[in-house]
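Run Uroporphyrinogen decarboxylase through structure prediction, thanks.
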Amino acid sequence: MLVMATTFLSLAFRDIINLCSLSPFIFYLDPLLVKAARGDPVSRPPAWMMRQAGRYMAVYRKLAEKHPSFRERSETTDLIVEISLQPWEAFRPDGVIIFSDILTPLPAFGVPFDIEEVRGPVIQSPIRSEDDLKALHPIDLEKLHFVGESLKILRQEVGGHAAVLGFVGAPWTIATYIVEGGTTRTYTTIKSMCHTAPNLLRTLLSHLTKAISEYIIYQVESGAHCIQIFDSWGGQLPPDLWEQWSKPYITEIVSVVRNKCPKTPLVLYINGNGGLLERMKGTGVDVIGLDWTVDMADARKRLGSDISVQGNVDPAYLFSPLSAVTKEIQRVVKCAGPCGHILNLGHGVLVGTPEEAVAHFFDVSKTLNYDGSSQNHSMEESKLLV
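Sure, done. The structure for Uroporphyrinogen decarboxylase is below.
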């Protein structure tokens, strides 16, 4: 009997080792941010910042001097990991987002682009005709191997102590670059296409929807706990046109990803989203990202308490006295309520933001408490289980 018991324990231990080798992620419980995204009870609001890795950090600027090409920095595994971990090592946020760009997957489905120092992203062959559509092909995820490799490493480096975040651009937002040929302030070409070539635009958006859906699933399978969908320029559309030209494609992405990755929270963020909140909720995402122009109390009244929200401290507050930063964080968190709030800025960290202000933001977030329990409660739950 003793021999049999010993043999059974040996086999069980061997099975655990085999499981570890098959999936290095399965022994972590959900990080605080994932729980909040799902609306589960948490002891405090998790916090991270959009663009939390970037030019406001001295360590990033030093690295950028050595590697001046943004494409190199965002498409080289070692550099992606190093840059993504810079704010983690400095501030210990509750979310670590991969250093990348919403345009990164374009060459993988037939749209090459460059990034110029002054002009920003440039697409030499914009898609504006039926013939132009012939350049598109299904997404080749092998060409995005550096994204998958980076997410796997980040998941291992961060462990269960923070959520690893992936992200994509929404079809409408990606289409603005592809149609306009780069960044624009007027969006006249693509807005005109809504009326002059609607079938062409629908075909492009449908192609992007399929590619983006596959790209999200790839990120999740590579280690992302959570995915943020940036419809950055969705706010450039009137609400009725957003309902027609953006919402259906985001809704389809949510449906496809939910079917394949049912436990992965999805966040939707739009610049200037005050007129779109209820419509955003209708896409089926788990979290609505709020920019700083929307008052948190008003957003909660409009959205209700059955969906999580993210945001929405004005990034300019980080240039104010630290006492003002503290008060604004406390106000936003109080208005958001204890159910389903992820503390974030209402946009990305601004260039020139003092690093001590960013550190203060995260320090304050960790002192907040919903139920008076230990501040270390969430960290204890996220420890590695053996």
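Strands lie at 95-97, 114-116, 120-122, 163-169, 226-230, 266-269, 287-289, 308-310, 341-342.
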